Amino acid sequence: MAEQKENKPVAVITGASKGIGLAASLKFIELGYTVIGCARSKDKMTELQTKYPSCSFSPIDVTNAKEVESWSKTVIDKYGSPDILINNAGVACDKAPIEDVSIKNLDLIIDVNIKGVMYTIKYFMPAMKANKDKQSKIISISSPSGRIGIANMSPYCASKWAIEGLMLSIAKEVPEYMTAIAYNPGGIITEMIYCLMPELNGKIDECIKLGAIGPKQWADVCVPHIIGMKREDVNGKPIDRPNLKELLSNNWKIYRQIKQQVLDEQAKK
Q1: SS (H, E, C) 131-196
Q2: Looking at CB atoms within 10 Å, which of 47, 101, 179, 195 has the fewest?
Q3: pTM, to two decimals
Q4: Is the pLDDT of residue 71 over 50?
């Protein structure tokens, strides 16, 4: 039985220590949600827990099934089943042809990006299915890279294609009061961009000043979008963030501009 007495909706978010996971957590709090966040960073989870004591932030490794199972039980016992479950935790690795990718990185990408999502859904799903009073949603962060492919990033692309298939299948398993989708967040400038374009390392703030979409700008638009989605419109579909094509084009224009500046500076040395 859930202990929570406040009648606030509950959002569970993995990978909540930085990037869009952190930004989404803060936006959900702003919109009146109780946020249950997790990430591997104990220091960041402690910092957020201290700042937002009515929420819950825990150092959890989503690749550890037993940790995820124990965490889910604790969350459900105290807060009940989530209204929204966002599987955001994800990793990438430096660009390289498949034959040069280390086994360590291959395992990490599959463990975090696929198995971590599966574990989280597996252990929260029974409570979500049992709670017929909530129109709950499971959102797994995906990427068009899984559909289009990117040279020298095949493990990451494969993991995102797996998420598309996973969520399409789960959408056929959930009852009529639940929604399950893969959500394409669009091109956001976070530390993950370094794997795709290493010249942007340390240039995130500069890109955002030029108009690129950072995590906060993303959350301001996409969190309300996620909250407002209706099952009949989206269940089982890969859903793009609003204004995706326009924003992607603008972001990549800025990325290429900054990259060229970096290359020009390096050439002068």
Answers
A1: CCCCCEEEEEECCCHHHHCCCCCHHHHHHHHHHHHHHHHHHCCCCCCEEEEEEECCCCCCCCHHHH
A2: 47
A3: 0.92
A4: yes
